Amino acid sequence: MTITIALPSKGRMKEDASAIFERAGMTISAVGNDRSYRGRVEGWDDVEIAFLSASEISREIGNGTVDFGVTGEDLMREGFAEVDKRVEFCARLGFGHADVVVAVPEIWLDVDTMADLVDVAADFRARHGRRLAIATKYWRLTQQFFSSQHGIQLYRIVESLGATEGAPASGSADIIVDITSTGSTLRANHLKVLQDGVILHSQACLVRARKENHAGEPAVQAIIDAVRAAL
Ligand SMILES: Nc1ncnc2c1ncn2[C@@H]1O[C@H](COP(=O)(O)OP(=O)(O)OP(=O)(O)O)[C@@H](O)[C@H]1O
Ligand SMILES: O=P(O)(O)OC[C@H]1O[C@H](OP(=O)(O)OP(=O)(O)O)[C@H](O)[C@@H]1O
């Protein structure tokens, strides 16, 4: 059986992902020329590498079209409901750290916690004639956190495809749910993270698609063991 591992072909996780495999004793070389989207691993003849973007990798693992991948936990949890039934998070790799957070305008002086936001959402329609609007590209994580965990039902998600932090200032939304690492983009846009507003601490993970043909396949466990030993 050939085992396919999807690794980032570009973007912020590319270099660190390759370095982990190198340390794991799995040296990757491109098949054909340097711009090829296929690779192989020296000494591991039954393993092939597919180079994809981090977001494509999460989709391919969730659909089971690749066996393993390196991608952000946020992308997996946003992409698939009940993701732990579909995939196994085999290892947290120690890079690509970012938090998915709820952030509100700094000038909302009396809003510091999710409980405060529950009150704001409840009053919003009476005060403003419409529901609280949340800009995000993380609509699944937002719905789980607001509706299931905090019982907030009165809100509207405004899907954002970029520059989410600008939405409150431009008036297209009241608050945001987005990723932050250094916090500088939030500060530049006069937004603050709620004290209990971290939805997910994300980082790059080695993720395995739960596939029946993995049982009894020694190379599957060998890959997991090699990567864990490299951490
Ligand atoms: N400062 C950051 N901003 C955004 N994502 C970050 C940051 N730090 C780490 N990440 C993580 O990087 C991953 C996204 O990486 P990247 O933007 O390279 O991939 P992508 O979404 O596939 O790229 P593209 O949008 O170009 O297709 C996510 O898992 C995210 O959590
Ligand atoms: O907390 P910080 O360190 O400021 O990082 C957070 C910002 O970085 C990312 O945007 P980026 O400009 O990298 O582009 P992207 O959304 O295309 O990844 C992300 O979408 C945030 O806007």
TrEMBL record:
GO terms for molecular function: ATP phosphoribosyltransferase activity. Residues 54-227 form the ATP phosphoribosyltransferase catalytic domain. Its EC number is 2.4.2.17. GO terms for cellular component: cytoplasm. GO terms for biological process: L-histidine biosynthetic process. The keyword Secreted does not apply. Catalyzes the condensation of ATP and 5-phosphoribose 1-diphosphate to form N'-(5'-phosphoribosyl)-ATP (PR-ATP). Has a crucial role in the pathway because the rate of histidine biosynthesis seems to be controlled primarily by regulation of HisG enzymatic activity. Belongs to the ATP phosphoribosyltransferase family. Short subfamily. This is ATP phosphoribosyltransferase.
